């Protein structure tokens, strides 16, 4: 188990990201300042394909840019709902790769809603499936980032019921749908979940949002246990970033209760680029 204390400590150090993941030796490791690198030790002849769900803005976009910059990635695919934002993000990622002299990386942008499992499953097959064998794993090392999410802050009794459904469908079920759709095509790689510091510690004003982020931890840890047996080449990672300067956070602050604003002011604000440098691979 990971104690609560490190989470409290991390809230007061904005540049750091609490990153929890399990290795094949079944031990927990906490990463703070040391960036991770993308490797292909399990199958070093397979190209690396980074798929970032929620990759049109915020942490997801920064991760995609970092992947395009690092020189070890053959493909970067971003998924999100808004096609206009995807087009702009794709152009930004391509420019990042060009600036880093990594223009050989292939960048794709695909519009899909994570709440539509049938659509997500179709996209997964289009990106990774073989023509004649739908469930045959791809000959790529796939790093799947689940970064799609909706923020919401308000006291529990003031939150409309339909918001409960919207947050659960996007933040929790969306990650499960994506994972279920892509996993049959993966033989080597990593599945990364972007939770939140509020997925480790309940914070005033985050009742519904926090619940969806806590759920990701339970899902990730249980999935890890199952994949150790069924797909040992696929690891699972979950990150718990603190408040980060993203478009979603800007929306969040507009509805934030006064008490929550005081708590967040003491915690500081991270930059998505700093988070991405730690989350850019497994």
UniProtKB/TrEMBL annotation:
<protein>
    <submittedName>
        <fullName>Short-chain dehydrogenase/reductase SDR</fullName>
    </submittedName>
</protein>
<dbReference type="Pfam" id="PF00106">
    <property type="entry name" value="adh_short"/>
</dbReference>
<dbReference type="InterPro" id="IPR002347">
    <property type="entry name" value="SDR_fam"/>
</dbReference>
<dbReference type="GO" id="GO:0030148">
    <property type="term" value="P:sphingolipid biosynthetic process"/>
</dbReference>
<dbReference type="GO" id="GO:0005789">
    <property type="term" value="C:endoplasmic reticulum membrane"/>
</dbReference>
<dbReference type="GO" id="GO:0047560">
    <property type="term" value="F:3-dehydrosphinganine reductase activity"/>
</dbReference>
<dbReference type="GO" id="GO:0006666">
    <property type="term" value="P:3-keto-sphinganine metabolic process"/>
</dbReference>
<dbReference type="InterPro" id="IPR020904">
    <property type="entry name" value="Sc_DH/Rdtase_CS"/>
</dbReference>
């Amino acid at each position: 188990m990971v104690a609560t204390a490190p989470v409290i400590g991390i809230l007061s150090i904005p540049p750091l990201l609490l990153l929890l993941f399990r290795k094949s030796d079944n031990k927990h490791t906490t990463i703070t300042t040391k960036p991770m690198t993308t490797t292909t030790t399990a199958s070093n002849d397979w190209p690396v394909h980074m798929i970032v769900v929620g990759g049109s803005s915020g942490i997801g976009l920064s991760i995609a840019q970092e992947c395009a910059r690092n020189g070890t990635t053959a493909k970067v695919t971003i998924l999100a709902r808004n096609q206009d934002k995807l087009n702009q993000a794709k152009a930004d990622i391509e420019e990042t790769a060009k600036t880093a002299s990594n223009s050989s990386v292939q960048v794709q942008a695909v519009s899909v809603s994570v709440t539509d499992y049938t659509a997500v499953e179709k996209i997964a097959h289009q990106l990774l499936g073989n023509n004649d064998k739908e469930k045959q794993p791809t000959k790529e090392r796939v790093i799947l980032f689940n970064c799609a999410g909706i923020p919401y802050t308000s006291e529990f009794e003031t939150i409309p019921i339909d918001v409960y459904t919207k947050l659960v469908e996007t933040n929790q079920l969306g990650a499960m749908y994506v994972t279920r759709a892509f996993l049959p095509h993966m033989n080597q790689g990593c599945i990364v979940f972007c939770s939140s510091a509020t997925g480790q510690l309940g914070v005033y004003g985050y009742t519904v949002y926090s619940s969806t982020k806590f759920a990701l931890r339970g899902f990730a840890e249980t999935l890890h246990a199952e994949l150790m047996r069924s797909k040992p080449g696929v690891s699972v990672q979950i990150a718990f970033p603190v408040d980060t300067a993203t478009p979603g956070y800007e929306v969040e602050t507009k509805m934030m209760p006064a008490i929550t604003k005081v708590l967040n002011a003491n915690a500081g604000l991270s930059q998505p680029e700093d988070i991405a440098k730690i989350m850019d691979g497994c």
